[in-house]
Amino acid sequence: xxxxxxxxxxxxxxxxxxxxxxxxxxxxxxxxxxxxxxxxxxxxxxxxxxxxxxxxxxxxxxxxxxxxxxxxxxxxxxxxxxxxxxxxxxxxxxxxxxxxxxxxxxxxxxxxxxxxxxxxxxxxxxxxxxxxxxxxxxxxxxxxxxxxxxxxxxxxxxxxxxxxxxxxxxxxxxxxxxxxxxxxxxxxxxxxxxxxxxxxxxxxxxxxxxxxxxxxxxxxxxxxxxxxxxxxxxxxxxxxxxxxxxxxxxxxxxxxxxxxxxxxxxxxxxxxxxxxxxxxxxxxxxxxxxxxxxxxxxxxxxxxxxxxxxxxxx
Length: 314
Ligand SMILES: C[S@@+](CC[C@H](N)C(=O)[O-])C[C@H]1O[C@@H](n2cnc3c(N)ncnc32)[C@H](O)[C@@H]1O
Hints:
Order of helices and strands: HEHEHEEHHHHHHHEHEHE
Oligomer: single chain
Helix content: 40-55%
CATH architecture of the largest domain: 3-Layer(aba) Sandwich
Bound molecules: S-adenosylmethionine
């Protein structure tokens, strides 16, 4: 079934996610990144007849579409337009106790395919790139940032070696005429990098970098992870699927720090720190999609899944 393409987003690593979460009836689950609602629907099916799900997305369109897709579950579902990094600020959600949680980061296929959002360099559209209505659109960031900031964004989030050349070209071009569309940005990047070096790959990296910066994706992840973990009951599982090496690194380090039992310097005869393990790591290496999945759904190629089980705080 498709609702304007929104249910066509194929949930990545779906069976792995459900096996790890082990949803059960009477459990309460959080999907912090609803998107098209595919994972959410599977969690609700697996936790029938009485499991409940709280779904969040910063994109009102995702909420609207998931509401339609998940309508058959009635009052087992509660949806909120919200950044998962603001869970603790929510009067209705701050006190929840969760039996499992999922983050499936990044953008959905539906967002990329929606021309007016400006996520894709394959169609000419206004340069917006915001997942939700708040924040600074990409065109404003491109008009405001200086060369150093642009270079840093493109190098760090896009891992693009020609970052400085591209940043210089952006600054030079915006003095002539403001950069308002994806088509114009694509042209500027294509002209800035050597022809011999697959300019379209640089374009893709610049678009990814801008999207991450515009939506403050890494900041949301760093601040959202502890807010979710604090709300997990003992034995609850938390699954995070990331698509960028910087995201995966944040998740890996955060999970590793949670799982460590003592952080005293080596050689101390007795433990003097209060650090106690708060989770068990369930995936010592990240899970990645099987070849059959990436063949069917190329978007899954860069996916990395990590999971933990919450332990009682000592
Ligand atoms: C990869 S899609 C999720 C797809 C979903 N699992 C499915 O099966 O359809 C990511 C979604 O997360 C949302 N998102 C990304 N970062 C977010 C954040 N910090 N808070 C809330 N939603 C976020 C995006 O708007 C997008 O709809």
